[in-house]
Amino acid sequence: MPGTIDKGIITQIYGDKARVSPCNAPERASLWIVIPQPLRGDLGGLTKGAEVVYALFDDQTGIIIMRADGESGAEVT
User: Fold this and answer.
1) The CATH number of the domain where 35 resides is what?
2) Is 76 contained in some domain?
3) What does each C-alpha distance from 37 to 15, 27, 33, 65 come to in angstroms?
């Protein structure tokens, strides 16, 4: 199996990586996975507790694909 795409909740953020727990198993957090550049910092508005869609691969690496609410997180002025 090459990997999975799932919906989860951010449990921790450190720099450009996050730990995410699947919505159906909140006690199980992923290893640190990548937050892509467009979602980092204030631009993405990701915080602990935010729901995201993410890919997790067999080697336990992964990447956040997008916020589950479909927003970019950035305020447009």
Assistant:
1) 2.40.50.140
2) no
3) 11, 27, 13, 11
